[in-house]
Design brief:
3 helices, about 0% strand, single chain, about 60 residues
Amino acid sequence: MTVSEVKPPPSAFRRFLTRLGPFDYTLHNVVAHPLSEIAYLIGLKRLSRFIHDETLPADHDGEH
């Protein structure tokens, strides 16, 4: 594993989402996907990726 592959610890928001139990992906799927798509379409690709990734629960493994 290289230094660039080391991921920082999950944010407090992502840890909060993980505690929502069966609803841990609801905010990600219902809110973040549409917002990140809009950001992407208007050229804000970094913001789109941030919105998408920061709304994944902390225990999410792998790429989504």
